[in-house]
Amino acid sequence: MEATTQSAPDSYPAVKSFQLVFHLNFFLLALAGVFALFALPRAIARFSRAAEWRHGYILRAIPLERRAPRPAMRSIQSPPSGSLAADNVTSDESHTLHSEAHLIRHPAAKVEGWSLPPHVRAWSSRVPTFANILRYRLDAGFSLGQALVLVIYSAALVYGGFLNSNPFADPLRTGFVAMSQTPVVYLLGTKNNLLGIFVGVGYEKLNYIHRYAGILLVIASNAHSLGYIYLWAITQTFSTNIREPAHIWAFVALITVDLIYLFSIPFFRRRAYNVFYCSHVALFILFLPALHAHQPGVWPYVIAAAGIISLDYLIRFMKTRMYNARIRPIPDLMLTRIEIPQLNAGWRAGQHVRLRVLSSAMGWFGWAESHPFTIATAAKTPEGMVLLCKKTGGWTGRLYEMAKVAGYGTDEGAFGRTVQVMIEGPYGGPGHCVFASYSAAQSVQDILQRDSEGASRVKIIEVIWSVQDSASLTPLVPQLVALIQQSIYAPLKISVHYTRASTNPPGKNFLPPGLTLTAGRPKFAKVLDAVISRAVSYGSGVKASMAITGVIVGVCGPTGLGDDVAQVISQVDDGRRWAVGGIEMHEE
């Protein structure tokens, strides 16, 4: 009876702290639900079409149907004969800005044989002033909207940690706050992010919250530990307490999270990625049993975190495929082209996969490295999946050198080398945006494919590609010409800009109609203004019966490029913005 009376005061703060952090997580869950509610209209519009349920989740191989192109209207010329294969260049050093004006059918218009996807405007185009404020960049790749999310998250944790509590007098509270955020950190660190699925964004768009939540978890864990060390020191019981098994496991958990933070600093992420990745996986797994051994009462949070990471690895296993791929170098672009013709379905335009090359030529541990690459072709095409891997570092350099030494293979005499690869994905992409209604520009080939089938609202496609050397254009002219030839209903214009002085740039006579080459950086404001003007005034054939619903600007390239384009969009006059039906932005 005496023991019960003495333990009651100790258990009461623990119960109150447990209840407080439970309500804290419930608030964060409700906040995420608000974002999911805002994304719901676009999710309903996307999944109202059965075809959208089959794309963007599981890679697969399907038999391709030979389908004749939809006949053009009288006012539109049929495309000249030629190959329909085309690649969309996306790499770390290839800067692209693609702008399309997207038009939907007017309710009174009747276009026989066309099945257009539903169009739902993004909130950024409904409240452009507020969206421009949130889009304002505080730092490279970091917007005011992202900062606001982190401020709200910080305020919630500070409230939970300091409400009627002093961290030095009550170190138990900070421990519960750290424990409560463990599932949050694990959830935001997974590739198959459940939160991202509901709010309609890829895991990479939420990674900044994962990193920040991890830092707060480390701070709270160290504050919790230092608080107890301080109490043990002033009561001269440190040597006694440190021998208890629960406290030994506490220090194991503390060292684990501190090492996770140490190996997550930019030095290791950039210079020793394998150290960062392997330590992340191993220490995250060790942290959970250490946390449970330290405080068995937190088992619901440990189970939740373990369930999240286990589900992620199960889905990643289901998304993994092994194929023989053909690699060949493209010297003018300093990149390696990877072709997997057997894999031809299951992804959406703008998504990426994680690639492993299972070859000893990649080095002692190169075969174990996994790197993300944007898929460069649309699904359901004869060439299958194509990846363009820019030579930017050690791994991509070894891949390029391996492709360079390849000769003519035995398979139909094709140039290149066959290697075994492991493909995991697809990931990322535009979320609930339907490219055929207001597509981001990384999906040019996909838009044209749907346009030929009568399933696209796109009216104008403008592609801007910025490269360093004009010679980069030469090997891709056949693919770019093929893209232009596919633009039956939506005219395609491709503008290539080179930023480095060239002694022998391709002549104008060398380039076909619709493809231009210009020295200097592209003037994004001028391009966007021209696209808006064309969107408002353009109309011919079947497209003339479709009403204007807006322009979407897709950006793929370095962080600075996205910042520049975001600033250009925010400076568009409100009158022109409303005249074109709003302007949206999708950034890769």
Describe this structure in words.
By secondary structure, this protein is an alpha+beta fold. It has three domains: 39-127 and 431-587, no CATH class; 139-317; 319-428, Elongation Factor Tu (Ef-tu), domain 3, CATH 2.40.30.10. It has 20 helices and 14 strands. It has a six-stranded mixed beta sheet, with helices on both faces. Helix 4 (144-162) packs parallel to helix 8 (207-234), helix 5 (171-180) packs antiparallel against helix 8 (207-234) and helix 6 runs antiparallel to helix 8 (207-234). 38% of the residues are buried. Mean pLDDT is 81; it is low at 1-9, 69-110 and 408-413.
Topology, element by element:
Elements: H1 2-47, E1 95-105, H2 123-126, H3 128-135, E2 137-139, E3 142-143, H4 144-162, H5 171-180, H6 182-188, H7 194-199, H8 207-234, H9 238-241, H10 245-262, H11 266-271, H12 273-294, H13 299-318, E4 320-330, E5 335-340, E6 351-357, E7 371-374, E8 385-390, H14 394-404, E9 417-428, H15 435-438, H16 444-452, E10 458-467, H17 477-486, E11 492-498, E12 515-519, H18 524-537, E13 546-556, H19 559-570, H20 574-579, E14 583-587
Parallel strand pairs: 10-11, 11-12, 13-14
Antiparallel strand pairs: 1-10, 1-13, 2-3, 4-5, 4-9, 5-8, 6-7, 6-9
Helix pairs in contact: 1-4, 1-5, 3-19, 4-8, 5-8, 6-8, 6-13, 8-10, 10-12, 12-13
